[in-house]
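Q: Sequence in, structure out?
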Amino acid sequence: MEQIAIWFASTLGQYISKEAVVFLISMIPILELRGGLVVSKLIGVPLLTAIPLCIVGNIIPIPFILLFIRQIFKWLKKVPFFAKIIVKLEDRAMRKSDSIKRYEFWGLALFVGIPLPGTGAWTGSLIAALLELDFKKAILAELLGVAMATVIMSVFSYGLLEILF
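A: Exactly. Output:
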């Protein structure tokens, strides 16, 4: 993930500000807030500037995914090229959904908040949408999860990376 984030930063950084790079990286699936905070440290964006950029960038896609992803997937499944990809995405997301099914709000919050590979707001939103969780509960759980991920990744990015680099 770090190498992908650094590639985005170096490529986009030629055309837009460091802050815009951090914001955009935070919106990208897989990278999200986690990648945004790592990159912000590596390219010299102060923590207090990076946090709101990463949070806003990470939460912007959430309501759109929750509201529209099932319809988009339904439409894309009609196109043979996309059908296999969509089924794989759905299967992969649903394999990670056990804790969310069982604990709903807290399961989703922890799924989004604990920075492990394959977790985060994008996957959490996809799972919540596929499980048809209540929109308001899902939004609140994901906001809580993003807040948890912000604290964890801030400590990692600006604490541990400071020691290492």
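Residues 66 and 132 are 9 Å apart (CA to CA).
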